[in-house]
Amino acid sequence: MKEIIVDSKYNGKKLNTFLLDTFSSLSMNLLYKTLRKKDIRVNDVKVSENIVVHTGDNIKVYLSDEQLFGTAPNLEIIYEDENILAVNKPAGIEVVGSNSLTSIINNSLQKSAKPCHRLDRNTTGIVLFAKNDDSLNILLDKFKNREIEKHYYATVYGIPKTKHADLTAYLFKDAKKSLVYISDTPKKGYETIKTSYDVIKIDKKANTSILDVTLHTGKTHQIRAHLAHIGFPIIGDGKYGNNEINKKFKAKVQKLTSYSIEFKFTTSAGILEYLNGEKIVLN
After folding, report:
1. Helix (H, G, I), strand (E, B) or coil at 58
2. Does residue 120 carry a catalytic annotation?
3. Scanning 57, 128, 159, 224, which has its CA 20 to 30 A from the CA of 259?
4. pLDDT at 83 over 80
């Protein structure tokens, strides 16, 4: 049995949406079979229908961990020392939450670590974890003050005219819809975003490019939305991309990978000073 609480993101959503998003190995068929058997309880009441759930609801699912989670993925540890841990996150898994990257690290790998930043569910690549509170506080401060530089590879549809661009725009986050909107001009409620890219490979026949993208501000869905806004959607992006293009390339998740984290401290980093000038890179 697994017990979970509905968070605000799923307030007013159907039970199946919440459970399928939460449990990576739960299939639609098994979910409805479990409902028919009344092996799901909402606030200790057995339910047999796909009801609407609300923030704070207590959900109990009477299935095994293997049925809900499957087997834990083999995670690639890119770098580890006494203070930090860097892991290569696969697609299809959240950084935090039930059956998340964090829970797998702390449960399956017997580590004690907290994430210092996040990647979208279907974005792959480096996620940095702190193994103690001092390191966590330092790294959170360094990310906030942009003393840690993150680079991504993005495969986009289209070929930019210039090989390098520094982009500035304005982003609004609609938390209820889990969407962001981009504007070229300042608007009320919009925050400034800055994104740079270099074209590192093009395929004229397929009309695609691979970009090396640098985040100068770290807002929700920034790279995906910003590139789509300028006419170069990431292939496989179901939210900001083009569904016809995604079907053409048979891409079900966005082709976006965090491949490099570089420490560029301009202020004291305490016990992490040894990281200054260092870089963690995917092979």
Report:
1. strand
2. yes
3. 159
4. yes
